[in-house]
């Protein structure tokens, strides 16, 4: 099972000081967080993509390319790549390039984006969200799998004899997850292709995650990719950890109360019971996280959100120390002990290359 | 004998409130009108005052908490709805409107509904027609022709004004007629059922 962190890259004032980082500070902080993630033994770093303030990551492959050069084992991912407003041709090119510079340490999570004003900036309409995701992703797959593509569709200019370069590393495209909080059509899309399904698992009650994952697993089997429990599931999650539970609650409360998205609403205590948010000791985070398996089954990837709402870099790096030293080693051991042998690990470049060559993958991963 | 469910939504704030008083009168009359048609009724009351915090939280977080979820399910799953708001600043109250703001699109489509409002002055009586009824039209609910407004004048003198009683009975009869004429309400279609359009068709449809 893979463990990691994902960031949305928000520039938010620290509510305890009133000071917001500069864009430069925030970007460097995200990179420091990625490097630290590898240092403390985490597997994955995923970066969001946004095209409006207060967010900085408009160009994820630039940042991920830099991180690739400074790391050696870290899997680089996205949370999410906008499959609606990006040109699928540019996604194919950018992420194939990142695959080469990172020696295959890249996968993507596709999402639609829910910020209405962004769509027209890129010549699109949010009401076409699902059709855009369907058409663009189908084209992206072809661009990675066919050397010469003739294509025409509804949302971009036709392609005649087009070759997307560079070709995917070793002829194997990056693994793709599809993220959606509540649209069954996106879980259907993931199931249809046998791709992974990622649920944000932060902002809404767990019942939404459960229904989406159940649906995805059932449809994954329907399309003949394997049994429902062999589908590839990733979850988000949000934690704030201190050795002492009361310290965690006291320190995180002002960040929670003023957080973008859910701040100025329910109390920290209510939101913690209504959603997967866990603020407490390493033991509490371990127990809650292990409980995710009770409603989604054995899953392949767990990413934590730890750096939003104005939390200072120093605090975030301390969170990574706690995750790396006290939380993730226990989760790794416990999840591994529970997982049946026929449930695959998340695909990696190595496992996909092996599968393409017809060699049974050592990790048991499926193409 | 068919048993119908009536959801009663009251946005009154004081205890006792004239809004709840009107809601109760409309409910009693509707139950009687259903019985006259040979149908039983189960009544479930949702007092929005108890969900004031839940509603504000739902605006911020985008999802209803468990208590509000129960209230929403009660209203959405009922065979008929009686909705009564106090008039605040020449319209429905913000609390009343917020409940409808957090419903899923289409949640009340085709729902038989009786609209009521209370105010301190009879000069607000058209709020039902220029504010509440258009809201229910937007929601595609089936609002009965008679909406019932009650001002302080209607409750004056300790008894209930005869013309108010007549309006209540007429509106209740209209709601009972709509509810009794409908099949028992079924839940909205499950979005997580297997799709009727295959993904191959979605791709071909481009």
Structural class of chain A: alpha/beta
* Span between termini of chain B: 51 Å
The pLDDT mean of chain A sits at: 96
* Strand portion of chain B: 15-25%
Instruction: Classify the helix fraction of chain A into a percent range.
Output: 40-55%
Please work out how many helical segments of chain B DSSP would assign: 8
What's the CATH superfamily of chain B, by name? Flavodoxin domain
Mean pLDDT of chain B: 93
Rg measurement of chain A, Å: 20 Å
Helix content of chain B: 40-55%
Chart the SSEs and their pairings.
The complex is a heterodimer of chains A (367) and B (206).
Chain A: E1 2-7, H1 23-39, E2 44-47, H2 60-70, E3 75-78, E4 81-82, H3 88-101, E5 108-111, H4 118-121, H5 129-145, E6 149-151, E7 159-162, E8 176-179, H6 184-193, E9 196-199, H7 206-222, E10 233-235, E11 239-241, H8 245-257, H9 268-274, E12 278-280, H10 282-296, E13 301-304, H11 313-338, H12 349-356
Parallel strand pairs in A: 1-2, 1-13, 2-3, 4-5, 5-8, 8-9, 9-10, 10-13, 11-12
Antiparallel strand pairs in A: 6-7
Chain B: E1 3-10, H1 18-36, E2 40-47, H2 52-61, H3 66-77, E3 80-88, E4 91-92, H4 94-101, E5 112-119, H5 127-138, E6 142-143, E7 148-151, H6 152-155, H7 162-180, H8 199-204
Parallel strand pairs in B: 1-2, 1-3, 3-5, 5-6, 5-7
Antiparallel strand pairs in B: 3-4
Helix pairs in contact in B: 1-7, 2-4
Tell me what you see in this structure.
- The complex is a heterodimer of chains A (367) and B (206).
- In chain A, the strands form 3 sheets. Chain A has a 9-stranded parallel beta sheet, covered by helices on one side. A two-stranded antiparallel ribbon of chain A has the order 6-7.
- Residues 363-367 of chain A have low confidence and may be disordered.
- Chain A has a single domain (2-356), classed as Alpha-Beta Barrel (TIM Barrel).
- In chain A, α1 packs parallel to α11 (313-338), α6 packs parallel to α7 (206-222) and α10 packs across α11.
- Helices cover 43% and strands 13% of the residues of chain A.
- Chain A is an alpha/beta fold and 367 residues long.
- In chain A, β8, α6 (184-193) and β9 form a beta-alpha-beta unit.
- Chain B has a single domain (3-204), classed as Flavodoxin domain (Rossmann fold, 3-Layer(aba) Sandwich), CATH 3.40.50.360.
- Chain B contains 8 helices and 7 strands.
- In chain B, strands 1, 2, 3, 4, 5, 6 and 7 form a 7-stranded mixed beta sheet that branches.
- In chain B, α1 (18-36) packs across α7 (162-180) and α2 (52-61) packs across α4.
- The longest helix of chain B has 19 residues, at 18-36.
- The radius of gyration of chain B is 18 Å and the shape is globular.
- The mean pLDDT of chain B is 93.
- Chain A binds chain B through residues 131, 134-135, 138, 153-154, 184-185, 188-189, 192, 203-205, 208, 211-212, 214-215, 218-219, 222-223, 261-266, 270-271, 274, and chain B through 56-57, 59-63, 65-66, 191-192, 194-195, 199-200, 202-203, 206.
């Amino acid at each position: 099972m893979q463990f990691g962190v994902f960031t949305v890259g928000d520039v938010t004032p620290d509510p305890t000081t009133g000071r917001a980082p500069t864009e430069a500070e925030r970007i460097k902080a995200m990179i420091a967080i990625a490097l630290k993630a590898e240092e403390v033994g985490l597997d994955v770093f995923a970066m969001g993509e946004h095209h409006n303030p207060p967010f900085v990551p408009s160009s994820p492959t630039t940042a991920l390319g830099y991180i690739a050069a400074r790391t050696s084992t870290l899997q680089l991912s996205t949370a999410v790549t906008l499959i609606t407003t990006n040109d699928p041709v540019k996604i194919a090119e950018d992420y194939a390039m990142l695959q080469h510079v990172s020696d295959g340490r890249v996968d993507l999570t596709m999402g639609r984006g829910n910020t209405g004003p962004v769509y027209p900036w890129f010549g699109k309409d949010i009401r076409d969200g699902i059709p855009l995701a369907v058409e663009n992703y189908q084209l992206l797959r072809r661009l990675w799998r066919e050397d010469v593509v003739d294509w025409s569709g509804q949302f971009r200019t036709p392609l005649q004899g087009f070759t997307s370069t560079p070709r995917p590393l070793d002829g194997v495209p990056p693994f793709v997850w599809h993220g959606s909080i509540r649209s069954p059509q996106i879980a259907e899309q993931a199931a249809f292709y046998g791709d992974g399904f990622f649920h944000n698992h932060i902002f809404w009650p767990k019942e939404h995650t459960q229904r989406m994952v159940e649906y995805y697993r059932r449809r994954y089997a329907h399309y003949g990719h394997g049994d429902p429990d062999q589908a590839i599931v990733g979850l988000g999650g949000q934690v704030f950890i201190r050795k002492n539970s009361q310290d965690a609650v006291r320190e995180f409360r002002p960040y929670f109360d003023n957080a973008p998205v859910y701040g100025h609403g329910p109390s920290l205590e209510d939101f913690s019971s209504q959603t997967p948010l866990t603020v407490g000791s390493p033991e509490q985070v371990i127990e809650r996280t292990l409980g995710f398996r009770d409603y989604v089954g054995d899953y392949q990837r767990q990413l934590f959100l730890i750096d939003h709402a104005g939390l200072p870099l120093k605090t975030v790096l301390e969170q990574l120390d706690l995750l790396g030293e006290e939380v993730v080693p226990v989760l790794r051991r416990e999840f591994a002990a529970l997982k049946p042998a026929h449930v695959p690990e998340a695909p990696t470049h190595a496992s996909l290359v092996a599968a393409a060559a017809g060699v049974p993958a050592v990790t048991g991963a499926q193409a | 004998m068919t048993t119908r469910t009536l959801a009663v939504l009251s946005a009154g704030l004081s205890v006792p409130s004239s809004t709840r008083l009107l809601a109760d009168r409309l409910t009693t009359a509707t139950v009687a009108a259903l019985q006259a048609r040979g149908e039983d009724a189960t009544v479930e009351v949702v007092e929005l005052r108890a969900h004031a915090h839940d509603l504000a939280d739902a605006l911020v977080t985008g999802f209803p908490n468990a208590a509000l979820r129960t209230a929403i399910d009660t209203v959405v799953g009922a065979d008929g709805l009686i909705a009564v708001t106090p008039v605040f600043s020449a319209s429905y109250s913000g609390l009343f409107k917020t409940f409808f703001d957090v419903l899923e699109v289409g949640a009340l489509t085709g729902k038989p509904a009786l609209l009521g409002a209370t105010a301190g002055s009879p000069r607000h009586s058209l709020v039902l027609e220029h504010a509440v009824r258009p809201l229910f039209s937007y929601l595609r609910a089936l609002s009965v022709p008679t909406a019932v407004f009650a001002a302080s004048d209607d409750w004056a003198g300790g008894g209930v004004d005869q013309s108010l009683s007549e309006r209540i009975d007429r509106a209740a009869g209209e709601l009972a007629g709509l509810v009794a004429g409908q099949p028992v309400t079924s839940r909205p279609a499950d979005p997580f059922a297997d799709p009727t359009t295959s993904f191959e068709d979605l791709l071909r449809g481009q």
